[in-house]
């Protein structure tokens, strides 16, 4: 999931493919927590628009944190090395 603070959009990529892109109306500091796939306001780029809070059951193969919003080219390069 990519958040672009310049455009105010949140984009969700799965296996290098863009599956959703939404405008995020509120931007607030989240403190010391990192949210994967959701936000403190429970808004997301999920196709259904709803992600339940709770423990994640599964495996995260690769997790990256970048200081900038990645481009679609960056995403494709990471998904297909």
Automatic annotation (TrEMBL):
InterPro entries registered for this protein in UniProt: ConA-like_dom_sf
Protein name per the record: Uncharacterized protein
């Amino acid at each position: 999931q990519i958040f672009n603070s310049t455009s105010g959009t949140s984009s969700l990529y799965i296996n290098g493919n863009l599956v959703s892109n939404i405008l995020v109306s509120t931007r607030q500091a989240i403190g010391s927590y990192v949210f994967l796939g959701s936000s403190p306001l429970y808004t997301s780029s999920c196709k259904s628009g709803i992600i339940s809070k709770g423990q994640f059951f599964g495996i995260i193969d690769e997790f990256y944190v970048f200081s900038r919003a990645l481009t679609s080219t960056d995403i494709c390069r990471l998904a297909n090395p």
